[in-house]
């Protein structure tokens, strides 16, 4: 039997970084996904091939690279996930894993979270487990901790459930039913960055200026709560304004960059109602909220400024599996 699992990427509308400190964030699953195929092997090896330029085999603790410098480190999260499942389900076997992703990596669109979720779902079903969504979120956290050091859990949560959710560490998730479309354009600066390091830089700023940063974090929480009611009303103009304010807070937290600021400015000149970085910052992507019918112009403005535009749609589909 071959099991395939698909899990979507994400874009954070409000609240990144501050979510690590317990404040709520609003996150949308987007129509880009990672597909992971899992099948048993006769030996006990873990063979992984991908369309990301990394392939190789874990033979016990040894790794044989087939493709890509740094494959072992990049593919280690898959090994961690497989071992987590073997331990939890008290079953073990050799595996062939194939990864196909159309989510750009390391730019804040949740590629590693989606990969972790799809891997848990595919191996879990192959081993005969009927995992609940809650269990998938929990089991994919192990590899996310390896990749991001101190993640909030938001990425694997949205990849598991799909749709639009409000997430906080203490209160978990609540689903938002948004009937109207949220016309967004994502702009990729082409600069890859490390989420763990950026989260750590905010921690250091918090330690240096505890009172200021506590107030900033609380303001971010207040802003996300405001955004929830504006989103429910469907007032795009106010939503754009709140995105601009959120960007100001992220600049104050030290996670924006020249390239992000440039794409934000051109998106706004191109007709965006508001724009901000999305994800960890330091590079990666911006998200712009478009006036109705203006998405192509904004995408063109991003392209002209050297970024890669992506007109993404929200998807209600979370993780799914099928067999062949
Ligand atoms: C990364 O997608 C979002 C951050 O808030 C980190 C996290 O929540 O784990 C920057």
Secondary-structure map:
Elements lengths: L1 E13 L10 E17 L4 E5 L4 E5 L2 E6 L3 H19 L4 E8 L9 H16 L6 H16 L5 H8 L2 E5 L3 E5 L7 E5 L6 H14 L1 H24 L2 H17 L5 H12 L2 E7 L6 E6 L4 H10 L3 E3 L9 E4 L1
Parallel strand pairs: 3-6
Antiparallel strand pairs: 1-2, 1-13, 2-6, 2-7, 3-4, 4-5, 7-8, 9-11, 9-12, 10-11
Helix pairs in contact: 1-2, 1-3, 2-3, 2-4, 3-4, 5-6, 6-7, 8-9
Bound molecules: (R)-mevalonate.
CATH architecture of the largest domain: 2-Layer Sandwich
Number of structurally distinct domains: 2
Q: How many strand elements?
A: 13
So how many helices? 9
Q: State the CATH topology of the largest domain.
A: Ribosomal Protein S5, domain 2
Record keyword descriptors for this entry:
Alpha-Beta Plaits; alpha+beta; Ribosomal Protein S5, domain 2; nine-stranded mixed beta sheet; binds (R)-mevalonate; 2 domains; four-stranded antiparallel beta sheet; 42% helix; 324 residues
